[in-house]
Amino acid sequence: MAAASSSLSTSTVTEEELTLIVKWSGKEYTVRVCGDDSVGELKRRICELTNVLPKRQKLLYPKIGNKLADDSVLLSQLPLKSSLKMTMIGTVEDDLILDQEDSPEVVDDFELGQDEAVDIKDKEVNKQKLRRRIDQYKIELRNPCREGKKLLVLDIDYTLFDHRSTAENPLELMRPYLHEFLTAVYAEYDIIIWSATSMKWVELKMGQLGVLNNPNYKITALLDHLAMITVQSDSRGIFDCKPLGLIWALFPQFYNPGNTIMFDDLRRNFVMNPQNGLTIKPFRKAHANRDSDQELVKLTQYLLAIAELDDLSTLNHANWEFFAEDNTKRRRHA
Ligand SMILES: [Mg+2]
């Protein structure tokens, strides 16, 4: 009966779990992944255990050559066996400023057709990845969830902060009206910040901007790159996204598709929950734009206007600017 069990550990495994041993710095770590995970995903799992950032990891495995250097390769495409040990070379990054400046600039946000967006979120393989993330990721609450509040999830880079410009004081790179915005929307929304970088960077940056200890609002939680999942698109290949289903599954008594909205400058981050995403105009070139950027003022009006609705997921957030205008007019004439 157990005769076939040895074949389970070979590359034919796709949706099955694969247990790998990773040696690093004289210790061995057990990492559970799946065949349909990418190398990038494997590196995130290793990062969870070792704190070595994925981009600092070099993975060595007999007879695989440099395929482990390509983050987009799927593990099912590699001849991995559970019995063999992988070696990781890399150091924990202490220099957080380096972390910031090394992060690759993502400017080519691509359009995913409506049909394909539906495909990606409905694909069983992606739903499974989400389920595994729900099992693995722990969200640490900085402040309690509040009953009756909606949920606002915010990206950092180019949404709240221009991470590519340099300044002596990080406050110069903060999107204008950030604190006013957070203060106003906190009346109706719990606030979660979710960045595709490391938790150290999220805490450092939000701390520097004075977001974590502001007397006028509280941040419910911070999420980092480890909470993301890698999905496959037929036309765009493999990319990472931020599945809100993770938050909904961990706090079902507070948050759901009907009361959640997420701001991100990259539309593809919403691909698992397109009805909940609002693509915000990126805040770049802070020195040139910080006197004119009004996005957070306008978005405050939108968020407060829609907070009265029972179900936010019926809205088309692409039209948010018109909604705010109509609403202002309606109120003026009321
Ligand atoms: Mg961003």
How would you describe the overall organization of this protein?
It catalyses: O-phospho-L-seryl-[protein] + H2O = L-seryl-[protein] + phosphate; O-phospho-L-threonyl-[protein] + H2O = L-threonyl-[protein] + phosphate. One of its GO terms (cellular component) is nucleus. It is a single chain. The chain has 334 residues and is an alpha/beta fold. It has 10 helices and 11 strands. Helices cover 28% and strands 17% of the residues. It has a 5-stranded parallel sheet, covered by helices on one side. A 4-stranded mixed sheet has the order 2-1-4-3, covered by helices on one side. A two-stranded antiparallel sheet has the order 8-9. It folds into 2 domains: 17-95, Ubiquitin-like (UB roll) (Roll); 114-333, 3-Layer(aba) Sandwich (Rossmann fold), CATH 3.40.50.1000. Mean pLDDT is 86; it is low at 1-14 and 95-104. The protein is globular and about 70 Å long. The protein has helices at residues 39-50, 96-102, 114-122, 124-136, 178-185, 199-208, 245-250, 286-289, 295-306, 320-333, and strands at residues 17-24, 27-34, 58-60, 85-89, 150-154, 189-194, 221-223, 229-233, 237-241, 260-264, 277-279. Bound molecules: magnesium ion (MG). Magnesium ion (MG) is lined by residues 155, 157-159, 264-266.
